[in-house]
Design a protein that fits this description.
This protein has about 375 residues and is an alpha/beta fold. About 45% of the residues lie in helices and about 15% in strands. It has a five-stranded parallel β-sheet with strand order 2-1-3-4-5, sandwiched between helices. It has a five-stranded parallel β-sheet with strand order 7-6-8-9-10, with helices on both faces. Strand 1, helix 4 and strand 2 form a beta-alpha-beta unit. The longest helix has 23 residues. The radius of gyration is 20 Å and the shape is globular. The structure holds 6-O-phosphono-alpha-D-glucopyranose. The site of 6-O-phosphono-alpha-D-glucopyranose has 16 residues, from helix 4.
């Protein structure tokens, strides 16, 4: 009903708007007075976390993309090797698991059958399983050794938005907690990242305040057949998520690529006026990534692409090559997906609406897939 949608035309728009709150709520109670992490709710003994020699993340759909991003944070902050695998592929290849393996199962609903089967397999092999889940008491957390709940609140729209942002927050928290328990980072460094995380909710809010041009662009591109997405580093999974959203909602052919792979195939797809959305890494710090991305944008533009560039405020270098420029607030590189994903959600939602699609209930899809 209209009342349930809180005045928004769809649950999806309501849930996109709720993201600053969802992000803040997922941090709530998990940071102590001194700014350190307090995650006692993760009931896996610290010794076990110290002894873990591998992290394996299993998930499906949008949650899988959260896992891909988590890998960058986990490996960078903890130096523990981390694999990310589609839950539906995981157990069938006889993965190597033992009590030193920490498996993280990410699921909004907690009922996705592929993810459940993956975690059952992991536990049978003796691995410990931590669930990251948005639904209290659902099957996946009940069958896991421990759970860290995301506090997105109920997500009704089939395509995941606010749950995804909170999955990212939860993954960052787990990564930092592992770093803390293992002494991989000192307390001050961890506090600094926690402070950055605490400021993110406001950045997401600011992104939401500047979305009108993104909606206009979506309306202008609604007649297109294909949209490509490019990213690098943590922007690569964001590109995959942007493409997934277009498939789910707009029923358009959309693909996400790692920008470095362009020359190995995807650049052959570029033709006149093809929209290519590019998620640009921050120009600060890891500027090598930024420079490489600027070259990629130049290359596709020289071949006729219509470039939609998502870049950090103050990134002047990309301006000459952007047919459409979407600016997001500057945040630390690893946390960038929390702000760069939001315009892609809005873009997909508006495209879908313009094309006359039902955004909350896309054809052929279900909110939670309880069959394998
Ligand atoms: C379905 C939904 C997606 C979701 C995926 C995984 O395909 O349509 O939005 O990302 O399931 O769901 P889960 O509940 O496990 O996160």
């Amino acid at each position: 009903s209209a009342a349930e949608k809180g005045g928004y035309p769809s649950f999806m728009l309501k849930e996109i708007a709720e993201q600053p709150r969802a992000v803040a709520d997922t941090l709530l109670g998990r940071i102590d007075g001194s700014g350190a992490l307090s995650l006692d709710e993760v009931r896996i003994p610290p010794e076990a976390l110290r002894e873990a020699d591998k992290v394996v993340i299993v998930a499906c759909g949008t949650a899988f993309h959260a896992g891909l991003i988590a890998k960058y944070a986990i490996e960078h902050w903890t130096r523990i090797p981390c694999e990310v695998e589609l839950a539906s592929e995981f157990r069938h290849r006889d993965p190597i698991l033992d009590p030193q393996t920490l498996v993280i199962a990410v699921s909004q609903s907690g009922e996705t059958m592929d993810t459940l089967m993956a975690l059952r397999h992991a536990r049978e092999q003796g691995a410990r399983v931590l669930a990251i889940c948005n639904t209290n008491g659902s099957t996946i957390p009940r069958e896991s050794d421990a759970v860290l709940y995301t506090h997105a609140g109920p997500e009704v729209a089939v395509a995941s938005t606010k749950a995804f942002l909170t999955q990212l927050v939860a993954c960052y928290l787990v990564a930092l907690y592992l770093a803390q328990v293992r002494g991989a980072k000192d307390a001050d460094e961890i506090r600094a990242v926690v402070r950055d995380l605490s400021a993110i909710s406001r950045s997401v809010e600011r992104v939401l305040e500047t979305m009108e041009p993104v909606r206009e662009l979506a309306r202008a591109l609604a007649h297109k057949d294909t949209v490509l997405f490019l990213g690098r580093h943590v922007g690569y999974p964001v590109a995959l998520e942007g493409a997934l959203k277009l498939k789910e909602l707009a029923y358009m052919h959309a693909e996400g690529f790692a920008a470095g792979e362009l020359k190995h195939g995807p650049i052959a797809l570029v033709e006149d006026d093809l929209p290519v959305v590019v998620v640009v890494p921050s120009p600060r710090g890891r500027s090598v990534l930024h420079d490489k991305m600027v070259s990629s944008i130049q290359e596709i533009r020289a071949r006729g692409a219509r470039t939609v560039v998502i870049a950090e405020e103050g990134d002047d270098e990309v301006v000459p090559y952007a047919d459409h420029l979407i600016l997001v607030p500057a945040v630390p590189t690893l946390l960038q997906p929390l702000v760069t994903t939001v315009p892609l959600q809005v873009f997909a939602c508006e495209l879908a609406t313009t094309r006359g699609n039902e955004v909350d209930q896309p054809r052929n899809l279900a909110k939670s897939v309880t069959v394998e």
